[in-house]
Amino acid sequence: MMANDPDEVTSYRLVGGEKAVRELVDRFYEYMDTLPEARDIRAMHPVDLTSSREKLFMFLSGWLGGPQLYQQAFGHPRLRMRHFPFPIGIKERDQWLLCMCKALDDMPLEPALREGLARAFAQLANHMINQGE
């Protein structure tokens, strides 16, 4: 939920707002689209990543404490339910995290913020696992 206080410090503001969140998403999908190590999660996505990019941007905006764009457009994210049709195990989680952590590393973030976001993304990715290995 977006803070009522425009001066409240959120991860969204600390990363650099809308422009930075879009950059993070673009870098994430560039890695997913090009790294051989991410081929399994890439195969779960449509050929054209335009919609995927926009939905992740909208979700991350709200997840980081900015505008609740995803919720406004689609309702509650219900991430596990929306991802349930896709077999997500340890391998897929690790591939997703590889791309996201590489994208985070590309961003001009304070080390403590980057580490905190990496931990939060790891928790989020763990939550998506729906398959045993």
Give the SSE layout:
Elements: H1 11-15, H2 17-34, H3 39-43, H4 50-63, H5 69-74, H6 79-83, H7 90-106, H8 111-128
Helix pairs in contact: 2-4, 2-7, 7-8
Protein name: Group 2 truncated hemoglobin YjbI
Keywords: Heme, Iron, Metal-binding, Transport
Organism: Methylocaldum szegediense
What report would you give on this structure?
With 133 residues, the chain is mainly α. It has helices at residues 11-15, 17-34, 39-43, 50-63, 69-74, 79-83, 90-106, 111-128. The chain has one domain: Orthogonal Bundle (Globin-like), CATH 1.10.490. It is globular. The chain starts with 10 loop residues before the first helix and ends in a 5-residue tail after the last helix. The model has no long low-confidence stretch (mean pLDDT 92).
Features:
133 residues, mainly alpha, Globin-like, 0% strand, GlbO/GLB3-like, iron
Task: Tell me the number of structural domains.
Answer: 1
What CATH calls the topology is: Globin-like
What is the mean pLDDT?
Answer: 92
End-to-end span in angstroms? 35 Å
User: Tally the helices: what do you get?
Assistant: 8
Query: Biggest sheet, open or closed, and with what strands and sense?
Result: none
Order of helices and strands: HHHHHHHH
Oligomer: single chain
Helix/strand class: mainly alpha
Radius of gyration: 15 Å
> What's the total number of strands?
0
CATH homologous superfamily descriptor = Globins
The share of residues in extended strands comes to under 5%
CATH top level is Mainly Alpha
Protein name: Group 2 truncated hemoglobin YjbI
Pfam family, one: Bac_globin
Keywords: Heme, Iron, Metal-binding, Transport
Organism: Methylocaldum szegediense
